[in-house]
Amino acid sequence: MLLGPWNHLSVGLGQQHAGGTQQQQQQQQQQQQQQQQQQQRPPLQGRPSSSSSGPRCSAIRENGTPLDARTFEGSLNNQQRPTMAMTGCPFIRNTPAAEGNMMKPLDGPDPVLVAQKILARPGGVTKTRPLVNLLGGAWIQFMLHDWFELRKDQTAAPVTFPLPGGSVMPLQPAVLNREGSVINNHDHWWSGCQIYGTTPDKNRELRSGIDGKLRLVNNGPITSDGTYLPLDAAGTELVGFNLNLWTGLQLLHFVFAKEHNTVCDMLKANNPTWDDAKLFAAARLIITALLARIHTVEWTTAIIQHPAGRASQYFLWYGILGTLFGRKLHTLTKLVRRLPTFIGQFLCGIPGSNTVMAGDNLPFAHSDEFIAVYRMHSLLPDSVELRASSSGKLIKTVGLGDIILDKGTAVNTSVPLPDLFYTLGVGHAGALELRNFPTALRSLETPALKAKNAEQPKPHKLLDMAAVDVWRGRESRLPLFNAYLKALSLPTYSSFDKLGIEDAGARAALKEVYGNDIDKIDVAVGLLAETPLPGWIFGEAVYTIFVLQTQRRLESDRFYTADFDEAAYTAAGLAYVHDTTMSDILMRHVPELALHLQPRSNAFIPWGSSNKRQLHEAVIWDLLLPGTVLGWLRDMGYSW
Question: Is residue 222 part of a domain?
Fold first, then answer.
């Protein structure tokens, strides 16, 4: 390449390259999805959508009730396609599912062997990449529990794999539609269902019934007011989605339940006549939009610490004007909404712009590949150092197995909240690479398996999540890694040595398990084998899927576009969404953390490291200096 790799260019050139890549990949995806729809019974009904979602949301009614809020199953987000992306819709494809380029579930190396030889941590020693802290690792799981859950076929016999030591792993097959697509048990929107639930009945369990607030109870001494999340009959936190919890995830559920109630107080003060239902619906909209903004411009800029990547995230949310001159310019969306959509998005960002559908009115949904690239279990370490927030001194070291599932609840109700969050803030997440999968997640006894083991002790049943990741990729008919790269117009690898894996043991294991055939590598393995881009936690194969899906999930959702306005959110709610950071939330509910955070610092970068420059200020510097100069300065030890 004449100018060198795009990530070495200035922000402007890098943005142009990334934008061109996105356009090319979106065109390919649209062709693939159109072919898929021609072969399928359309899962979505309704007329094709225009570039706008039509009249504002108050014109869309269900049983005579104005729908100025999200439904629990995700329906009626788009009035021309009322079932688009709702619960039960299948995942789409970014790559073709062709017989010649994929591994059938029971073909190829045993997933347990792949996990044991290629993915497992030798000796349980965690390799870290000190770009993201443990709070960042918890955050992505918090988001994933909102976006998708594979629907399992509970009527089918489980597929059973033998595990070392005489145990077995029973895996329930996913529900597939007649075209072989996997079904999402959640809606595909950024809707906060991990907090608020996916059904009205579940939501009623979570609410206090007063002023729109969520339930909190006097359940432990960890906070200044003594409150914590309510627990269900099994002793698990009662939240919208409470599977696979651990201390970090439980704490995020707790702090956002408190933040929801804080927003309710703000709305009640400004709108004293609103009832419980109206306060809840508006607070849910506001909190969910805040989650989207934090993920877009805070979490993602922690995992992509490169000028072009960081600026691209700000452009998505604030546009070029908001990025350059301040976030308050989001109010200009009222003036530019009459312009062509791409101009409005370029100037002021996606929020508040027109709702759009990609290509030939293709419906939005998450993709199978999007699930695959977010299988980031390696971010979790095998041991965590609990430290005192007041002094930084070590309290004790606990294993990952001691803070997951019900054991995490016990830790949360016995260790002070400031110490727990400080531990997450200063602890480094694991590196996304081969031979770095958490040991504790390779012999996991979930509550469901614990119940089955009580009924039938032998053989003992456990989950090896590393093997699960491999199996689910095959079950979703994902291409093998080189075919995946080719489908995304990325360079393929001619040999194992070209992957750039520094770990000689990992290279040898790859060759052994896959019979020295580079074209047989599973996607779940190949994504971890790629060398990360400079300042990133992953490689270009992951980033390309991010590029394809990130913009679409915002611009297809009317609550982030045409209905991102004062009528739905209130003026105070919009200002809150744009101005509140993760650090603000932590310091509001855990004031002791003000010793370690600043209001506009990035809470997902290890505290006390390069976490000094304000978020917006960092992007301004990115725009002023070429990426290569910034890279040289970073290599010399400077941070910003």
Answer: yes
pLDDT in tens, 422-468: 999 999 999 999 999 999 999 999 989 999 999 999 999 999 999 99
Q: Dump the DSSP string for 153-201.
A: -TTSPPEEEE-GGG-EEEEPPBPB-TTSPBBBSS-SS---HHHH-SSHH
SS3 assignment for 110-149? CHHHHHHHHHECHHHCCCEEEEEEHHHHHHHHHHHHHHCC
For the chain, the average pLDDT equals: 84
Phi and psi angles of residue 15, each rounded to the nearest 5 degrees, phi first: -65, -40
How many independent structural domains does the chain possess? 1
586 and 421 Cβ atoms separated by less than 8 Å: yes
Report if residue 495 sits inside a domain. Answer: yes
Select from 1, 2, 6 the least CA-distant residue to 627: 6
Binding residues for heme b: 377
Binding residues: 377
H helix runs in 247-305, sequence order? 247-270, 276-294, 300-303
- 3-class secondary-structure state, position 245: coil
Reported confidence tier of residue 179, pLDDT bands at 50, 70, 90: confident
Question: Residue 236 is encoded by which pair of tokens?
Answer: 């698990």
- Average pLDDT of 86-93? 94
What DSSP designation does 364 have? P
State how far the Cα of 42 lies from the Cα of 29, in Å rounded to an integer: 17
- Rounded CA gap, 602 and 314, in Å? 14
Q: Is residue 640 part of a domain?
A: no
pTM tops 0.85: yes
Contacts of 528 (CB under 8 A, 6+ apart): 119, 378, 432, 433, 434, 436
CB 544 within 8 A of CB 552: no
CATH number, domain containing residue 49: 1.10.640.10
Q: Supply the DSSP symbol for 329.
A: G
Q: Is residue 1 part of a domain?
A: no
What is the share, in percent, of the chain residues with pLDDT greater than 90? Answer: 61
Give the range of the structural domain holding residue 490, as residue numbers without chain letter. 6-635
Whether 477 and 180 have beta carbons less than 8 Å apart is answered as yes
Rounded to 10 deg, the angle between the 276-294 and 571-579 helix axes is 30
Phi/psi class of residue 192: alpha, beta or left (left: φ > 0; alpha: ψ in -120 to 50)? Answer: left
- In three-state secondary structure terms, 292 is helix
**How far, rounded to the nearest angstrom, does the alpha carbon of residue 122 sit from its chain's CA centroid?**
28
Cβ–Cβ contacts within 10 Å for residue 634, how many?
A: 17
pLDDT tens string 224-283: 677 889 999 888 999 999 999 999 999 999 999 999 999 999 999 999 999 999 999 999
- Closest listed residue to residue 158, CA positions, set 406, 459, 466: 459
